[in-house]
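Please supply some protein, with C-alpha cells.
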Amino acid sequence: MPSTLLPSFEDHSIPSPPHVERPDGPGQSAWVRNGRRSSQELAQKLRLGDPPAVTVMGAVSITSEPTLPNLSNLEELFSDEGDDTGPVRSPGWQNTVSPQGLTVTLIADYTFPTRAWLPSAAIVALLGEFEVTAGAARTTISRLARRGALEGSRQGRHSSYRLTSQAAADLWSGGSSIATFTTQPDSWDGWWTLIAFSVPEAESTRRRALRTALRWRGFAPLYDAVWVSPHPLTPKGRTEVADLARGAVSMFRARQEDLETEANRNPVEAWDLSGIAEHYRTFVGRWSSLLPRIDSGGVTGAEAVRVRTEVMHAYRHFPILDPLLPIGLLPPDWPRSRAREACVAVYDGLVQPAQDHVRAVAGRFTAGPHLDIRAHTIAGMSAGVGHT
C-alpha cells in the first residue's frame, strides 16, 4: 500500500500505520519492574507529550555507532509472493497484511524460542479470527512450507507445523532489532554516508532492487541517484550493494558544509520529517487509548491476540521510516521513544491473555497443556531472553 506521507521513496511496499483521529488532549520494562505503572498514567503521559525515559532492557550491546535493523530477510518472510488469497483486513484494523505475513507473525509470536509445533487446525482457527477463510488459511500454510518458512509433521490424520530453523533465525534477528530500536544512545559523529549510482535504463529491475536495498539499510534519496544515511554501511550491506550495482557506484563519508543560499539543503531533508512524526503521533494516539482497558483486564481471548498482532505489525515499520535519525537534527519533542513505550505497554501487557488463548485453541485439536507455546515480549527480546 503506498504511503502518501513518504513520496520520495520509489518502493512503497511499507504500509502506513492505521489512521485514527488523535485524542484531544522478563528483562522487564519500567512499568513492570517498578510494580506496573497505571496505564491511565502512562496514557496521559503519552498524550501530553512528556518524553518518557527509554529503558534499556537487560544487556544491550552499545557501540560507537547505532546498530540499525537489517529487516530485508524479515520482510521477505512477510511478503505476499505467490499469495492470491488477498490481504487480510481484521475488524478494526485499518491497515492490511498478507495472509502469509499474518501466519508467520502468529506462529512466531507464540512459539519462540522453542520452535513449538502448532496443529495445522489450530493455525487455521487462529487465522479465522482474522477473517481468513479455512481454504485460504490451508493454502497459505502450504505456500509457506514450500518457501521454506515452515516445516510439517504428521501423526495419523493430524498435521502440525513449526518455523524452520532458518526462518526462526531470520525472525529472531529482525524481531530483536525491532525490540531494541530506540534503546541505543544517540552518538552520531556528524558524518554522512553517501552512495551515488548510475544504473543503465535497461536494468530498471536491478535499479529498483538497489534502491529497495538501500532503503532497508537506512538510506533515503537526497537526490535522484544520491542516497544518504547518517550511519556507516555495514560490511554485509557493502556486499549487498556491490552485488546489486551495475553501471557505476560510488560510496563516501562526508560532513555537510552549509552554503549561504536558500537552495542549501540539509541531508536530513531526504526524510519527510513531518510525515514520520505524524505516523508516530497517530500510533501513540491509537494504542495508548487502549491502555486503560488492558490495565483493567478488559482485553482477553482472541482480541488480545489480534491487538498484539496489529500493534507489532504497525510498529515494525518505524525502523525503516526513521532509521535512528540523529536527535540533534530532528524537531523538538520527537515522538520516537513515546511510540516505543506505547508499543511495549500494549504488546507486553497482553502477553498472558494472548498466550492463554493460543494454548486454548491448540488444545481443541491436540491434548494439552501446550506449555511450549509461550508468548514472547519486547522486553525479553531486548534482553536476549530465549535466544539460542
About this structure: The two ends are 35 Å apart (CA to CA). Residues 117 and 162 are 5 Å apart (CA to CA). The longest helix spans residues 273-288. Strands lie at 118-119, 150-155, 158-163, 192-198, 220-223, 226-229, 248-254.
